[in-house]
Design a protein that fits this description.
With 142 residues, the protein is of the alpha/beta class. The chain has helices at residues 17-29, 50-53, 59-73, 91-101, 116-122, 125-132; strands at residues 9-12, 36-42, 83-88, 106-111, 137-141. Strands 3-2-1-4-5 form a five-stranded parallel sheet, with helices on both faces.
């Protein structure tokens, strides 16, 4: 059942099965599959990284490789109309900014459910997105 006619939805993507399930959820609730924007956020390159120093890697080829891997992970007819995007920086901020810049009405994202020391050290992207987002965020528990 399609619940959100002509609504633009952002789905953060980290290549996990949970991310694929979030894309599937967005497909179920969106009226138009082409209004689903799947976003993967890459960390900024550090100037001392060997690939940067030796000029063998840059954001363009990183984005190309990540997009290719996203297409492999989201292979199949049902994913053919979703839009794939690569952003650079802090995941929580970039996802929220992307949603705002593209006038998205909903963010659908998985939560890996980390607790304790793992959450303290890694942080919670879902929590940052909820705090920073201008639109509703549907967080899917694993």
């Amino acid at each position: 059942m399609k619940l959100l006619p002509r609504k633009t939805i952002v789905v953060p993507f980290d290549f996990s099965d949970h991310s694929v399930a979030a894309v599937d959820t967005a497909l179920e609730i969106a009226d138009d599959d082409s209004q689903i924007h799947v976003v993967h956020v890459l960390q900024e390159l550090h100037v001392a990284d060997p690939g940067v120093v030796w000029q063998t890697i840059d954001n363009d080829n990183r984005a190309e490789h990540a997009t290719e891997e996203m297409r492999k992970r989201l292979e199949g007819e049902k994913y053919k109309d979703v839009e794939l995007h690569i952003e650079f920086g802090d995941a929580g901020h970039q996802i929220s900014d992307f949603a705002k810049q593209n006038n998205c009405e909903l963010i659908v994202m998985p939560s890996h459910g980390r607790t304790g020391i793992k959450r303290l050290l890694i942080g919670s992207v879902a929590e940052r997105v909820v705090r920073l987002s201008h639109c509703p965020v549907l967080v899917l528990r694993s």
